[in-house]
Amino acid sequence: MKQNALLGAGLMACAMIMPVAQAAPRVGDAAPAFTAVDSNGRSVKLSDFAGRTVVMEWTNHGCPYVQKWYSGGMQALQKEATGKGAVWLTVLSSAPGTQGHVDGASANRMMKEQGAAPTHYLLDPDGKVGRAYGAQVTPHMYVIAPDGRLAYMGGIDSIASPDVNDIPKAEPLARLAIDAVLVGKPVAKAQTRPYGCSIKYAN
After folding, report:
1. Which CATH class is domain 2-198?
2. Contact by Cβ (8 Å): 122, 111
3. What is the phi-psi region of residue 135: left when phi exceeds 0, alpha when psi lies from -120 to 50, beta otherwise?
């Protein structure tokens, strides 16, 4: 009962879709350029990965939908994608003082505890990267093709649920998109509805 109450409280802080002021790019558009600092203090530019497949995953460790995936296969998906040559960028756009915000050292500690394996964990406290992409929720997923164009944007899978037991039942939308882009094929479902907790942008 206590666990259900805690889950309910967490879900109350979430929204399925939260509009953002800046217009989102469309599939087929050039992916918005950005520069961000990662959890190790390094400056990371999208242009650093020209000619490679790039996966972007918005995160917030306090979100039940993110917790679902980090207890049900996000790490494996990261390792699978990077093992095939993709770059994986986990992006945190929670503003200071909001749910999910952490500094670089805390992010590194969490990744170690979780066994997470992104190429970089990007800190976006002012929300510039998130707003440029129109990222709405955590996890919101994007796949950028080697030509620099957005090939996929949307949900990580097809069942909008915080229950880890739903992962095997769902269509693995992000995985299918990543696999298609890595072998140069078009993504069958290139834009889908994202689900999760609203990103806690700065006002």
Report:
1. alpha beta
2. no
3. beta
